[in-house]
Amino acid sequence: MKDRSSLEIAKQKKARGATLGLLSDAYPQALSYVVIERLLVDAGAAQAHDMPRVIAYLQDKAYIVVTVPEEPDIQPMKNAVIRLCAHGIDLLEGSIPEDTGVDF
N- or C-end of the chain: fewer Cβ atoms within 10 A? Predict the structure, then answer.
């Protein structure tokens, strides 16, 4: 496993929090992966190459649901839509214990 600096880890945590924030603003609607990526990159909150890892973490923690179109594509995430789940709302509202992997 490649060693990651504490700065890289802090950036990942901030990107996860920023992603949840965007999805919270859109809730109950979903946002496309491309829109989330573009907004975070433009705001300097993430880099495009980090986004798959950010989304995977949030999905693994059940904070978000990722829906990928049924038709196969070379880059299926580019066509995915992402929606905040109740568990993600609970995290944002402090109803569940904080996640040290997400920084708001």
Answer: N
